[in-house]
Write a sequence for this structure.
């Protein structure tokens, strides 16, 4: 069968590897130039946190060994307090419970090379505005998917697009003085948030998230940093220049249905479900889509309509939950990581996980370090929370009984 | 100022009356032919329930006296049980707490005549696909607004479009044997819902709402009615013919933001907020938009940007609540109106309203028979519910104390 994929981002180029392995004739159309020839990052989300789901999907096509050396481990969060103190909080109990920072470009080039050598045809510099000729078309063309628009035209499609009222700017930290192997966070509450991902060369990319009105009101970025994030100011030597030159990035959440049309079209990745980036799961869920779709094609090898329908049925409830989790983690990153109580709770979670290995798994661990489907992870976390609450009630009850017993005696 | 309105539906033609009164030069573009010359109903939602908000808006431009004779009062709901029994439940305690059934066409023609004679220029048979030349453009072009799409292009707009998985068909009841002055309901649970609005000539328009799969599965409409709605079957002599000829209508809910752009464009009516029709408030809220926008123009006569921004700030929270209420009322109409408990609760509400006039107002009454803004109505209803709950707890508590007291004695 001839299958056309629109978009050679993480989702499209990984799916190309899966589909060519199934024996299909695969063609990928990509608006941008071949990243192997040109370096055009557009300065947007240039490094990302790869976690268990993405790694599992890359392992399935035999790429993880090649990609591993391109990543920098992030072993936990380094939280910066206003006074400049840095507190390190590990992501998990085990060596494997870490994230991996990777340049989007490096990941995509590996995927394209792999697909290319397996016989996938790539058409770069090609912006599609109509569906290409093929037995089926996969829309992997990101949050503003043209394939989605074409597929939904005139149809009874549900669609929800929501912008976070915060934009972002990417800035460069040439060297991180401590905790290079960490995701650094400056939680600024309603006044902003900085998150950094490390690069192989010892530098890090900082992303400043800020409400639009505050972002627009900054006339002197150095003065702004001196007031809000003084210790970050010292780390970004080119602040004024970068702040002036780099575009403001926007954050959009997208949910939609249906994801497919009669075995002819199917959406994956951000085209089907875009989330705010605060759980670091956008790309990971896009890559995981490919494994789920591949499994559905396995079950319905001769019936694309059934495979696509099953893919949406099986997958959408989980990406809907990821959308919720990504919203909640925005609050966590900008607010709660400042609170000692929050860290006490996190530590208690990790301690329980050590005492009951496999039976008590913190939500963050399930989402980032396992491939438990998102909705199942959330459901399990809620059950754990209920146990904790009942334990607290039970403890209070026991204390009351003990007091009464003393009085009675 | 020259203001262009796109859409001569209820919202656009009423706003034309308001704007020409403010001294503006108003031009209205409408895709369909002039309804005063042609009868082209397309068979869709041909009669609607006008309630307090819409009436208030029509009174403001002096039209209610002219429109009143075109309406049929609906004094309550006539609920049809499976055994054919009909129970009548009045809408309120007072003569004025009723709805008014009107043909959409009659309403729009009155509005167009009024606007026309005040100097508004109408351009019928004109489908706009670009914004017209004017100092400001009003998008009153309904749920699938072209003005909205043009205004949001490239902007960070929030947008949510959701289809109910139920479609509808309109059918004709030449004479309603009893309770002509009522809204008739056949609550069929998950198996369908029929609602009728009366017409001046003694006939009524029935709307059959059904899940799409069930609608598609009907091969013999008479057999379907004989099984599900036997007493309705007898009322619709042309059932088979109408069922085959009339199109399936779709129900969409739309929320979006922003509603305006820099004093140049503003959205009203279904273009800004479309709701499921189960609270009978879609057109009423569209008409009410005109009074709210007019008030904002009063406050900012020389600053359209400020007026449009204030309109959205003041109005959107209320239409968001209407969206929720319209979803809830879908459950009420198809399920709860079957339950005696529900009617007991409704009667208790009306009794409390009689005992505490003005202080206890059922939610349905506030939404349909007053102009209390939707969100304020919901908040007040929630407070009333809390009082009822506490009263119940209090009664139970008193009973318990009484029992204890008896035991102690
Ligand atoms: C600030 C930020 C930080 C993030 N951090 C993380 C993180 O730490 N971890 C994580 O997992 N995710 C993260 N994400 C999310 C991640 O970037 C996306 O989820 C991921 O890129 C989605 O992959 P995709 O292949 O579905 O879409 P995209 O990456 O958007 O790729 C779509 C491709 O389609 C092409 N295209 C679009 N339209 C057309 C057309 N009409 N014709 C031809 N080609 C077309 C585009 O050029 C593009 O190459 C972050 C996102 C942002 C904004
Ligand atoms: C089954 C059903 C029952 C309903 N019952 C009730 C009820 O009982 N009570 C109630 O209050 N509401 C009810 N409604 C809702 C009501 O019909 C709508 O809310 C109301 O019509 C909205 O008015 P509007 O003027 O904003 O939009 P519309 O009525 O949709 O008018 C928009 C106008 O713009 C024109 N137009 C569109 N695009 C263009 C373009 N590009 N160029 C030029 N012209 C264009 C259209 O032809 C149309 O005339 C019901 C709806 C349905 C579907």
């Amino acid at each position: 069968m001839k299958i056309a994929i629109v978009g050679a981002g993480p989702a499209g180029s990984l799916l190309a590897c899966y589909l060519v392995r199934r024996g299909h004739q695969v063609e990928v159309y990509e608006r941008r130039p071949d990243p192997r020839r040109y370096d055009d990052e557009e300065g947007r989300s240039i490094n990302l946190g790869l976690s268990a789901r993405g790694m599992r999907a890359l392992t399935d096509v035999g790429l993880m060994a090649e990609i591993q050396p391109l990543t920098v481990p992030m072993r936990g969060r380094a939280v910066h307090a206003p006074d400049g103190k840095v507190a390190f909080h590990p992501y998990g109990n085990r060596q494997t419970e870490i994230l991996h920072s990777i340049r989007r470009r490096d990941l995509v080039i590996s995927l394209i090379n792999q697909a290319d050598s397996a016989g996938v045809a790539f058409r770069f510099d090609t912006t599609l505005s109509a569906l290409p000729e093929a037995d089926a078309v996969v829309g992997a063309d990101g949050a503003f998917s043209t394939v989605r628009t074409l597929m939904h035209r005139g149809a009874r499609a549900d669609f929800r697009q929501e912008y976070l009222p915060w934009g972002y700017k990417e800035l460069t930290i040439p060297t991180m003085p401590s905790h290079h192997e960490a995701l650094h966070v400056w939680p600024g509450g309603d006044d902003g948030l900085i998150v950094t991902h490390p690069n192989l060369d010892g530098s890090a990319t900082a992303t400043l998230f800020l409400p639009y009105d505050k972002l627009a009101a900054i006339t002197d970025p150095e003065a702004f940093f001196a007031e809000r994030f003084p210790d970050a100011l010292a780390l970004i030597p080119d602040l004024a220049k970068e702040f002036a030159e780099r575009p403001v990035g926007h954050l959009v959440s997208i949910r939609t249905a249906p994801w497919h049309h009669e075995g002819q079209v199917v959406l994956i990745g951000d085209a089907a479900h875009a989330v705010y980036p605060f759980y670091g799961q956008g790309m990971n869920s896009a890559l995981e889509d490919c494994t789920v779709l591949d499994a559905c094609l396995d079950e319905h090898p001769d019936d694309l309509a059934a495979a696509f329908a099953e893919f949406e049925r099986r997958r959408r409830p989980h990406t809907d939950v990821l959308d919720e989790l990504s919203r909640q983690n925005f609050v966590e990153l900008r607010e709660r990581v400042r609170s000692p109580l929050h860290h006490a709770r996190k530590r208690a979670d990790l301690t329980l996980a050590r005492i009951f290995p496999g039976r008590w798994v913190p939500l963050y661990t399930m989402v980032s370090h396992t491939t438990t489907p998102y909705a199942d992870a959330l459901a399990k976390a809620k059950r754990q929370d209920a146990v904790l609450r009942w334990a607290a009630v039970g403890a209070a009850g026991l204390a009351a009984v003990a007091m009464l017993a003393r009085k009675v005696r």
Remarks:
- Residues 355-408 of chain A form one domain.
- The two ends of chain A are 83 Å apart (CA to CA).
- The first helix of chain A runs from residue 10 to 21.
- Residues 49 and 101 of chain A are 5 Å apart (CA to CA).
